[in-house]
Specification:
The protein is of the alpha/beta class. It contains 13 helices and 7 strands. Strands 3-2-4-1-5-6-7 form a 7-stranded parallel β-sheet, with helices on both faces.
């Protein structure tokens, strides 16, 4: 594949992999990129729900892999104004989902072919692949397809440890290029006089991969996912990350003046 293929991972559940994958897909699309967003969480797929198109899912990435549908029937375009195409998943039997068994190579070939077909059909500049928690089979399959990884971690020791292990695991799967997104970042807690939360440096050190960006906690994201309201702070942070992926130099908290003011305290 000539387009850039990124997977989103952490073996820790609920750290925001799907939220960040979708948010970044939208931010890249807003900067004129054509995006294919593929759901490889075969245990708890959710991107169709987050995009609000669950009632429009006809076929899934697994159906496409099995050649049980056309690429047109598998793809959804959730946002009229954006060139963002979703390849949804379902709880499915194309992959055994306990992650303990190695993924059968023939299944990886089929899934890779399905993603390739969708990427060609949509003329995607970027392919973003969301994976589930644990060492899922979806993660193994995504690692066989992707060029690089985005590892998501928050402040908790469990999430930092899980993210570090995920990075090591991805290296053994051949993904040497991994970056960290800290999400959700608790600006108040990390900047408090008595450090209530792990600082940014502690998180980066614990995970052991370079920082790509920081997405602050934004209740607006939860509201947005429920179809009410929007997430201005998170959206600005994701625009910054999208800019970096496009090779621009974007300061860590560009467009986030309230957080910029606190930046010295956030690295303590
Ligand atoms: N920056 C943020 N600010 C506020 N809420 C957030 C943020 N990021 C994620 N969330 C919320 O955290 C919850 C979990 O997010 P999400 O489903 O994206 O996690 P996940 O890592 O994909 O979970 P899973 O491991 O089950 O796939 C969601 O309710 C989401 O709205
Ligand atoms: Mg998820």
């Amino acid at each position: 594949m000539t387009e850039k293929v990124l997977l989103f991972a952490s073996s820790k559940g609920g750290v925001g992999k799907s939220t960040v994958a979708l948010g970044l897909a939208r931010a890249l699309a807003a900067q004129g990129q054509r995006i294919l967003l593929a759901d490889f969480d075969f245990c708890s797929p959710c991107l169709d729900l987050l995009c609000g198109v669950e009632d429009h899912v006809l076929c899934t990435v697994s159906d496409l892999a099995r050649e049980a549908c056309t690429v047109e029937n598998a793809l959804l375009r959730p946002y009229e104004t954006q060139e963002l195409y979703l390849l949804p998943a379902a709880q499915d039997d194309i992959l055994p989902d306990d992650g303990r068994e190695p993924v059968p190579p023939d299944r990886i070939v089929l899934l890779a072919r399905a993603v390739q077909q969708a990427a060609e059909h949509t003329h995607a500049d970027f392919v973003l692949i969301d994976t589930g928690a644990g060492v899922s089979t979806g993660l193994q399959a995504a690692a066989a397809i992707a060029h690089s990884a985005v590892i998501v971690a928050g402040h908790t020791p469990a999430s930092i440890r899980a993210a570090g292990r995920t990075g090591q695991r991805l290296q053994t799967c051949g993904i040497a290029d991994a970056h960290l997104i800290i999400n959700p970042f608790d600006v108040q807690g990390a900047g408090a006089k008595k450090n209530m939360r792990h600082s940014m440096l502690e998180i980066i050190d614990g995970v052991g991969v370079p920082l790509l960006g920081v997405v602050p906690y934004d209740y607006g994201l939860t509201l947005e996912q429920e179809g009410r309201g929007g997430a201005d702070i998170a959206a600005s942070a994701l625009q910054n990350i999208a800019g970096r992926l496009l090779g621009k130099t974007v300061p860590l908290f560009s467009g986030l003046p309230k957080i910029r003011k606190k930046k010295r305290t956030l690295f303590r």
